[in-house]
Amino acid sequence: MKLKKLAAMGAACGIAIAGFGVASAASAEPVSNSYALVGSDTLQDSVNAITNGTTLTGSLVRVTSSNKTLGNFDAFGATAIQTKQGGPFFGRPAGSGAGVTALRASITGAAYSGNAGVPARPITGQVDIARSSSGPGSNANANGLLAYVPFARDAVGFAYKGGDSSWAMLSAAQLKSIYECTTTSVGGVTVKPRLPQSGSGTRNFFLGAIGNPTLGSCVTDANGTTPENDASVLGANDLIPFSAASWIAQANGATGVNTTLNSGASFGSPVGGEPAFTGTAPNLVPNTDFYKDATFGRDTYLVVEYARIVPGDAKYDAGLANLVNPSVANSLTSFGALPVSVGGVKKKFGFLAPSTTTIQRAFATL
Prior knowledge:
The structure is a single chain. The protein is α+β, with helices and mostly antiparallel strands. It has helices spanning 2-12, 41-52, 96-108, 172-179, 201-209, 244-251, 288-292, 318-323, 342-348; strands spanning 36-39, 71-72, 80-81, 90-91, 111-112, 121-122, 129-132, 146-160, 185-186, 189-190, 192-193, 238-243, 266-268, 277-278, 285-286, 297-305, 360-362. The longest helix is centred in the first third of the chain and has 13 residues, at 96-108. It is globular. The protein starts with a helix and ends with a strand. Residues 1-15 and 17-27 have low confidence and may be disordered.
């Protein structure tokens, strides 16, 4: 009965949660017939689940808008994507920064290129929501034209392959020295620091959390395209920033791909004495104290044009506004306590409820 009530509430707001079917989390990229999402790798799998439909928590949970499906596009994959029916193909936005840039271009009509080798072209109206694993930072503005709506709580640590037991709890100061290449070994073992691709929210957040090091020459992929949250990229004695939620989701089998268990990698915590999670796979559980940490815990966001979610504005879009309204049952940004809810699915993907539901505005100009 509770599920039926939730379905009725969602349908009334243009958002549906289904209570039947046997679909599981998927990563297919259907052309959207309503709204399109691009950006962060950290958020893509959980958003794939709730937009494509998943039975991970029992009955089918799926978010739609007025019975129209959403198109959620991964950060990595084919070089070019088509997000809307009849729309142009354009370079895939790989990461939080690229997703926000694509959203801005979609609003302004500016040409967008995305991946190298894809010609820049106008993508007006092709992106509605950008997934971002980091907040607006220096672009925050009280009158900003974009709205960062809290999605879920994550935390950032690091994945490593090799080393000894001392690698499991490296401090922020130690990590800063490693990325500046003034520390080249830990526990007598050479350490090789790596970074995800430029534009990665996890990369930017991690570097800020460890004190914004001046990257040394030992960081071999500082300007490269190494995918984030992929432990399979690690070689012997490598170390790289990693989302705790992504590690949990992969290890627990919530995602379609698991790079953690068979890669020989381990997850390290930069928060002294606090592991990122407890239990053993496939039943890892986020450590609340690690996620609450003021330095390495982070809220993640869905980013939209502010005018489109403001009633009375000429650009107001009720469907989009409902999708990112945390007070609407089973919207994309909701975090209900029931297992068969969007919040229940997010927990399976290693996330906790965000620390706040307050929107942050950003970008005085686009």
